[in-house]
Amino acid sequence: MSCLQTLSDYGLRAIGYGERILPREDITLCEQFVLIGSGMIWNVYFGTLALLSGFVLANAVAVAKASPNPLLRKPAEWFILIFRGSPLFIQFFLAYFIFLRLKNGIPGTDFLTSAAAGALVVLFLNTAAYSAEIFYGALRSVPKGEVEAADAYGLSGWARFRRILWPTQMRLAWPAYTNEAIFLFHATTLVFFTGFPALRQQGDALYYASYFADKTFNPFVPYPILAMYFIILTLVILGIFGLVNRRLNRHMPHTVQAGMRAPRAIFR
Amino acid sequence: MLEGLTWLSCYMTTGKHLTAYWSFVTVLVLLAITAPTALVFGFGGAVAARSRIAPLRWFGKGYIAVVRGVPDIAFFLFFVIALDQAFEWMRHKALCPDWTDPIRQGNDFVVCQAAKLPLSSSPQWVHEVYGFALAVLTFAIVFGAFAANVLFGAMRAVPKGQIETAEAYGMTPRQTFWRVLVPQMWVYALPGLSNLWMVLIKATPLLFLLGVEDIVYWARELGGIKTSRFTDYPHGDWRLWYFLALLVFYLAFTKLSEVVLARWTKKLSHGQATLGEMA
C-alpha cells in the first residue's frame, strides 16, 4: 500500500472519515506519521477554541479581580485559585463525573459527556484562570504615569480601560501569555487519558502515539513523530504570537521591540 | 444496619480505604525523591548548556529545548517504556552474550529470561518498587529539564561584576564557578524553582498513567458503583465525591506550599537587592 493511499485512508481518521479499522499488523512508518498527524486535528481544535474563548473570559476575570468591589473580586479570586491550584488532570476527571450526573438529571446536556464539548469546557475554564492571573499581574504593573495622564485627559471608566489600560496590559502580559498558549496546546494531550471517551478510536495525537507504542512495543518511533509535530506547532504559535507582539509594541522604540525573545520562564 | 456517621466512619476505615490512604504517602515520597533528583539533573543540564565544549553544550541546550516544545505527558508515556527497554537491553547484553536472535522481532521486544526486569520469579513488591522507580526517574528527567532552564537563567543573572572580581583575584574558572557563581545563583533561581515545585505537585496525578496505584487509581476504584453482592457497603457512582476530595487535597497542598515558599523567598533574599526583598 502506498503512502498516498494511507494518507487518504487515515488522513482524517481522527474525525471519523476514512478507514474504520486502525492498522494492527505490519505497521508502517507512513501509517504512524499519518495517523498521529491526523490526531493533531483534535489538539489544534481544543487549543484554538479554548484559547480564543478563554481570552475573553480571562480579561473579564482579571478586571473583576482588580475591582475594589468584593462582590466581583472574591468570585474572581476563588475561580483563579481553584483552577490554578489543582491539577488539570483531576479537573478533567471531576468535570467528566459532574457531566455524567448532569446527563442523568437534566435532559439536553448529554453532549457535555463527549470529549469535543466537555473537555473543551474544562480547557476553556482552565486557560481562562491562568490567563486571568497573567492579565491581572500586567494590569497591576501598568505605569502610574499613564493612568494619571488618562485622568488628566478626562478619560474614565470604560474609555480609560479600553484606550489606556488594556493596550498596555496586553503589551506587558504578552510574553507570559505566549507561554500560556504553548502550555495550553500541550495540555490538550491529556484529554483522552482522562474520563472522556475516544469514540470509535477517534483520538488526538498522543492517543494514536500511545496506541502505536502499545501495538509495536517500540516507543522510539511514535513518540519522536509526536514530538516533531508538537515542535512544529510550538514554532507556529511562537510565530503568530510574535506577530501580535510586534503590533502591540509598534509605537515603542525599536530597542524595546527587539526585546521579545523566546520567553525565559516556561511554566504555568 | 448502620446509619449516618457511624456508617461513614466504618466505611472510611475498610481495609481497601486504609490501603488507599497509603497512596497519599506514595505521592509525598515521589515528591521527596523527585525534587532533589530533578535539581541534580537540572544542575547538570545547566552546566552542560554553559559548557565550552560544543557537543556538551548542544546536548544541554537540546535537553532544555525539546522538553519545552513537547507535552510533558508524551515524555512520561515515552520514558516509562523506553527506560524499561533500555535497562533490559543493557542487562541482556551483559548477561546473555551468546544470544543471537534479534531483540526486536516484529512487534515484540525479546530479551533472555535472565535479563527480564524485574525477574519473573521475584515477589510482587519488587514489581511495584521497580514500577515506582521508573516513574521517579521519568519525573526527574522531565523536571530536570525544567530545572536546567531555571538554573541556566539564574547563572546568567549573577552580576558580571562578581565574576570579574573573582577572576581579578586570581581564581581559576573552577573556583569562580563553585565559590562565587553557585552560591549566588540560588536567589535568582528561587522564583523559578518555586514555580517548578508547584508544577511538580500538579503533575503527580500523572503517576496514574505510568501504572502506579496512586490516589487517582484508588479514587476510581473506590468510587465506582458497588453492589451488595461484593461489599458490605454498597453505593452508587461516588467517583465525583472522591475526585472532589482529591481536588481539595491538591488545593490545600498548593496553598500550603505557596505560603511556605513565600516565606523562604523573603528569608533568602534578605539583604539582596532583588524584587523579593521589596515585596
UniProtKB/TrEMBL annotation, chain A:
Biological processes per GO annotation: amino acid transport
Cellular component terms (Gene Ontology): ATP-binding cassette (ABC) transporter complex
Key word Cell membrane present: yes
SUPFAM superfamilies: MetI-like
Membrane topology: Multi-pass membrane protein
Chief location category: membrane
Entry annotated with the keyword Transmembrane helix: yes
GO molecular function, one term: transmembrane transporter activity
Protein's cellular compartments: Cell inner membrane; Cell membrane
Family: Belongs to the binding-protein-dependent transport system permease family. HisMQ subfamily.
Protein name as catalogued: Amino acid ABC transporter permease
